[in-house]
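Q: Give me the 3D complex with magnesium ion.
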Amino acid sequence: MAQNIPVVENIMNANDRLAQENRARIESAGVFSINIMASPGAGKTSLIEQTLPRLKDKLRVAAIDGDIATSIDSDRAAAAGAQAAVQINTGGDCHLDAVMLRGALEQLDLKQYDLLIVENVGNLVCPANFKLGTHKSVLVASIPEGDDKPYKYPGMYRGVDAVIINKVDLLPYVNFRMDYFERGIQVLNPGVTIFPLSCRTGEGMDAWVEWLLKNAGK
Ligand code: MG
Ligand code: ZN
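A: Here is the predicted complex, encoded as structure tokens.
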């Protein structure tokens, strides 16, 4: 098995190089960019839908949505107010990589936007291993998934810049120990910013939107 390791490393290096090129392209256009990752159903697209109206008249937003199939998510982003929405269909791949993002970036005139939101494919394992070139990574967790996720998927929690805990309106109905969950995150990623919120009720959304505005220099 050991002889496979260099091959994997080469693939990762190639991806990292392309991610650096993506970053340079995004930076030169003066755009702030985030990569949103989560398991399927945690609320990535709902978060984008609830965030965009709150950024109206403040940031011009482009959304890139990765999915195995369909353009449902990019359609939702466009309907919610994204000035541009590009869908990447991965054709079966369970994550986005830097090549796919480059292809999507080529379809955008980046200078027209202030914020680029990339929605990764729903998956709590490999998206963390493929850098895209975005400035910040955001992980969306949700109450119904359970409070043990940081312990079970440490790789996803380790490298992110912010963790959103969505669906806090369901806390009264679910056995979810917030302190246990947050302890798990802090061990893996000390001091990471955590935003408990609900895309359904809107509670907690303001702090998240402020974080975006601050990072985008607004
Ligand atoms: Mg989605
Ligand atoms: Zn994958």
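A quick observation: Strands lie at 32-38, 61-67, 84-89, 115-119, 136-142, 162-166, 193-196.
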